[in-house]
Amino acid sequence: MIYYAHSRKDDIPEQTYAEHVCGVRSRGRDYVQEISCYAKCDNTLLSQIIEKASTIHDLGKLNKENQDVLAGKNTAKFLPQNHVDAGVAYFLNSQHPSVLSAAVIQAHHVGFPDFTVEVDRGDAAFRDRAIASDVDRELSELEAIHSHLVDSQFEYGEEEIKGDKSVFLRMLLSCLVDADHTDTATHYRKYPAEMSPVRLRAAERLAQLDRHIAGLKQTGADDDRNALRNEMYVACRNADIDAGITSCDSPVGSGKTTAIMAHLLAQAEKRGLRRIFVVLPFTNIIKQSVDIYRKTLVLPGENAEEVVAELHHRADFESKDARHLTALWRAPIIVTTAVAFFETLASNSTAALRRLHELPGSAVFVDESHAALPVKLLPIAWKWINVYAAEWSCYWVLASGSLNRFWTIPEITGDESFHPVPEIIDDELRKRLAVYENNRISYHCDLFPKGTAELAQWISGFPGPRLVILNTVQSAAVLADYFSEHFGRECVEHLSTALTPDDRGNTLERIKKRLMDKKATNWTLIATSCIEAGVNLSFRTGFRELGPLVSLLQASGRVNREGVLDNAEMWTFCILEDGMLKLNPGLKEAAAVLKRYFEGNRAIVPELSTQSLTDEIALYGLSGKHKNLVTNEKLQNFRKVEEDFKVIDSDTRLVVVDPSMAKRLQYGKVDWKKLQKASVQIAKYKLDELRTPMVMDKIYRWNLEYDGFLGYMAGIVKLKKYSGGAIII
Asked: Where are its TM segments located (predicted)?
């Protein structure tokens, strides 16, 4: 008799049980072998558990009723019996006990449970009570069939996790799930033929980057500021660092993007690392950084997209039909957002967690780290940063032009003793770099709330080109629409995550060209905080809605960037909710701190960054939910951690705005790169209110107006204008 793991689909035949189990086991072994040299502890235990769990994970599929469906004898959307419970029962049996194997098998489709809940279940922990007795009765029969099909020889011993338990368990689940998902997707021809991964080749890429910088030095202006940039590059490149976590406090225009990449490549070569992550703020535009890295780091004969991966937002899917669309961390250099990166570290969802095992042995550059995470998430993030540095050979660089040293704040570090975080560049060079910041810009405020029309008239009275940053996607779109309608489309540009990555890239290129025309000054860029970091743009006058101090400092880096003007201004303003403009409640507390600084006539300087965090915590504290994050992490309450760790406190979904791509999705003819470039993220409650249709597995199709100016907000703004602002979005 032939036993199956997956059923026939269209012209693709069934996959046999033995083929799938052996395939998952082989991939699991490979994943563990790749990271074992980076695991400072528990690598042997990781190998033993993966061997056992991967071999037994689908034992329940051998159940007769399940086999009838898999063989096509009976038709059913789901298997009649929960197939994971047999594997759990196998490893909770006193003859071959392995609680860790049982736990990871139970979790390989649904994620881990909260372990405090499982402890309260006693002998029923990790079991499916509804079928446990039936499974127990047939377990010996299933074992016999399995032993006939698959060779299974395990090593048993004490299962003591010596490192951080929660991170170890996530790493374990990541290896099993990715092996399972990849083998399944490969069988169903969702993946192209597997190729050898592109290697980091750190020394070669560093040499190429050196040549690029040397070329710039020869062709660029030989002034004091460029000389300092070159000095910054050399200092970062040659920094002798042995710590696992470092920081870099460098001002606007100091060449941080390439200087720190040189440092990361040098450290990767020294430490034998395999991958580099560049993590940008959660609302940031990443294309400019990607373009720089692809231009400077790709070696002859390589495909740029395979070397530098561009991940705009999370695209994680559970179903077999959509698994191939998941964005994995397999490129040697990955540029992504804090949402995608840190929420993966917190994840309990198997579709997201499957990429976690690619993180050990990586250098992680958290660029503009002041804006990477809200203050409430910093305590648990700091714990993870330390664990991955100490136990999984990750090297971290926390960098910003307005660095807040959050690791010096006891409320964030908790009970752990303070460990100094060394700087990559010394104080003397940092002071010389900061000289150019002293007189570059002056800060002003007008805190009287303004509605759409009054705000537009006020802004238009200042010299341009002007940069305006608002705190919500809706406010930016509404103000941009007003400018276009009353001053002319040629007088305004709009940039936010309402646009697809492709359209954001096109808009950014148009903005760069407009800024090069020094005679054309009467225009305004209206944007969200996505423009605050990682983009080399320079405006005449800047405006930012009242928000966090560090966001104001970063926004000012897009005004008079090179310091060529003597009287550049950066204004802080407040909006009046008028049915169209919308406040961001998530920034209320940080905004209140900045307002106090203005009212107290405090000087707005980068040195105030850490103090602003301390003041926010002193005034408002950390909510009970977020205080409990660290506790729940220690208790392995995985579902609570995933639920409470939200960089953006909104449940968003992937929405495809291109109708032809939405149609192709239904036939499985779109890869994740193309999907990301033609999609946006929209809060689920908005999609529900607008009755946006779902294409497949949490992927939606936008059914309102979309254009390259306002993005998906074109349809929403039109609805709100038509209803006089009565529609609440």
From this structure: none
